[in-house]
């Protein structure tokens, strides 16, 4: 006889076995999938980093600046009196000698001043002669007891005033003569006219620069240097100067002057480099390139690294050093900061490989793949 209860129990066992088999299969598949994902993730976690090799200390770094040939002494010439410019005897590039007349102002008003002061001198001298005659006359009367001492003193005083008036008029006349002479602008030294900033017919004031005269003698190169390069410029091992118009000529330069104040707009410092034994073909205004061979590190430093390699740990600088494709954090002692680099005083040695990009994404002991970014 068919037993429904036994049949139900048998089917229930089959269902249980089927469910258990499915669950086991799912678990096995999940484990395999997780292992594959973990292996894939592990492979993906080995990043490619940019690195650089620490070069030996003392490596020279060359910096090149464009400049212009200038004179050692440049005079800003100006009239000592104001007026209308009526004559110009030179052009830009003219060679002049000491005493040459460069420009001239309209002398009419100045000549009238001289005429007026000359007349004042003659008038004062006439008053002096009259005062002298009166003094002599009244001195004789005093000796004859015809006048009192007080009256004689009055004429003595009038004579003294007349003498002072002559001196004053003479001084004013001399000043007027000087002003008339100031209507002509002279070259005080031999040289070359570098620029002219006034033309005939223009009204110029006293002290207004109208001509730049470059005196004969030394030639220099004027360059502009950013503030972070000044120290390396001061300790330059060599300065070479080349010229665009003279490609086969290279001269040695010498640092002569660094401006004490930076340019308000460019924030660079004007620097003058003297040319040693400059040949005559070096002309004013030529374009020059100044190459500074400066020591790559300050005294006591062992390396210069890019700022992108620095990793800050509790206000202490550090770098990631790659050893056997594994990164390790190493603290360093920082020296002078540059615009894009940093001098390291201790903590690194030549041959060390450091990471220069993506330093904030690494962790201690992490495996990396390296690409050498070149030595510094």
Proportion of β residues? 35-45%
User: Stretches where pLDDT falls below 50 for ≥5 residues?
Assistant: 39-43
Largest sheet: 6 strands, antiparallel, barrel
Spatially, the strands of the biggest sheet line up as: 2-11-14-13-12-15
Q: What does the model show?
A:
The structure is a single chain. This protein is an alpha+beta fold. The protein has 3 domains: about 50-55 and about 300-370, conserved putative lor/sdh protein from methanococcus maripaludis s2 fold (Beta Barrel); about 65-70 and about 220-295, Beta Barrel (Elongation Factor Tu (Ef-tu), domain 3), CATH 2.40.30.170; about 80-185, Helix hairpin bin (Helix Hairpins), CATH 1.10.287.470. The protein is built from 4 helices and 23 strands. The model is unreliable at about 40-45 (pLDDT under 50). The protein has a 6-stranded antiparallel barrel. Strands 3-10-8-5 form a 4-stranded antiparallel sheet, with no helix packed on it. The protein has a 4-stranded antiparallel sheet with strand order 7-6-4-9, with no helix packed on it. Helix 2 (about 110-145) packs antiparallel against helix 3 (about 150-180). It is elongated.
Topology:
Blueprint: H1 4-44, E1 48-53, E2 60-71, E3 74-78, E4 83-88, E5 95-96, E6 101-105, H2 108-143, H3 149-181, E7 184-186, E8 191-196, E9 203-204, E10 209-215, E11 219-226, H4 230-234, E12 236-243, E13 250-258, E14 268-275, E15 287-295, E16 303-306, E17 311-313, E18 316-323, E19 326-331, E20 333-337, E21 341-346, E22 353-355, E23 369-372
Parallel strand pairs: 1-23
Antiparallel strand pairs: 1-22, 2-11, 2-15, 3-10, 4-6, 4-9, 5-8, 6-7, 8-10, 11-14, 12-13, 12-15, 13-14, 16-21, 17-18, 18-19, 20-21
